[in-house]
Amino acid sequence: MRKGSHKFKGTGVAIITPFKKSGAIDFDAFEKTVNFIIDGGINYIVVLGTTGESSTVSKPEKKALVEFAVKVINKRVPLVVGIGGNSTADVVLAIHRTPLKGVDAILSVCPYYSKPQQEGIYQHFKIIAETSPVPVILYTVPGRTASNITATTTLRLAKDCPNITGIKEASGNFDQIFQVIKNRPKDFLVLSGDDALTLPLIAAGADGVISVTANAFPNEFSQMVRHAVEGDFKSARAIHYSLIDFTNALFADGSPAGIKAALEIKNLCDNYLRLPLVPVNPEAYQVIQQCINQLKK
Q: Is the predicted pLDDT of residue 237 greater than 90, yes or no?
């Protein structure tokens, strides 16, 4: 079995990075959120992903946040750290400079903006896999990066790089995802990167999700995933449909603005983001509030 692949099945949470009004990282709120989601039964935590506003977190802050996450999580669940970029050399340097003791894997996004060819994407991740002392989870999200890891490239990497343990798939391309699930090595994980598509993807053979929604409803979302993985789709569907309006509301006016609003409503953190991101508009906030009130009933 690929190193560590068993750790990343089920529900991972792409955790937010809370900020104070001053703009500084709110470590107390981060600890509070970590404990809330672990108590909710999730399987692992991902820090410094898109939801963690990693593009606006400085290098010293990233180091401090990773060290703090290792300390707070204290091996209760596995920890994944987002380390990606559109310069292969810079990503390699970031891996060397990140304190990875206590970290179980890195999540690395497809290179963005430069629109590399598939061969370039293959070579990029091959070097990252050879560099990283911990397993690597690929991340394809064309809606954000304007680039995509095709099924052919994913399968090639899965075959050639044993340190690549799986992929977070947020392409929204069902045929692409199905081709990976159908032809992957048996120990290569396919993880949903889209909360709303998690149930159908697990039904098709995916292994779990890296979720935004589970920041706010870890118990409910992780239960849905467990039911689906176990084949109890009746129970999974009931939870899926209870959460779907809330999930859609989270992304209606940008993410992670939606989940920051939700966590403020749930008294877990303040509703501050770093520019160029701003909080959701009042109408979107009201819809999120209504969805949370409905889920409390």
A: yes
What domain count does the chain have? Answer: 1
Find the catalytic residue in 168, 260, 272, 285. Answer: 168
Supply the CATH number for residue 150's domain.
Answer: 3.20.20.70
pLDDT digits (tens, 9 = 90+) for 174-216: 999 999 999 999 999 999 999 999 999 999 999 999 999 999 9
Residue 236 lies inside a defined structural domain of this protein:
no
pLDDT > 80? residue 297 = no
Q: Is the peptide bond prior to 200 cis by the omega test (within 30 degrees of 0)? A: no
Domain containing residue 133? 5-231
Residue 243 forms part of a structural domain: no
- Average confidence (pLDDT) over 264-268: 98
Reply yes or no on whether 139 is catalytic: yes
Q: Model's pTM, two decimal places? A: 0.97
The amino acid at residue 263 is L
Catalytic residue among 44, 122, 139, 285: 139
SS (H, E, C) the chain: CCCCHHHHCEEEEECCCCECCCCCECHHHHHHHHHHHHHCCCCEEEECCCCCCHHHCCHHHHHHHHHHHHHHHCCCCCEEEECCCCCHHHHHHHHHHCCCCCCCEEEEECCCCCCCCHHHHHHHHHHHHHHCCCCEEEEECHHHHCCCCCHHHHHHHHHHCCCEEEEEECCCCHHHHHHHHHHCCCCCEEEECCHHHHHHHHHCCCCEEEECHHHCCHHHHHHHHHHHHCCCHHHHHHHHHHHHHHHHHHCCCCCCHHHHHHHHHCCCCCCCCCCCCCCCCHHHHHHHHHHHHHHHC
Residue 89 maps to a domain: yes
Mean pLDDT score, 240-262: 98
Residue 20 inside a domain? The answer is yes
Q: What's the pLDDT score for residue 4? A: 75
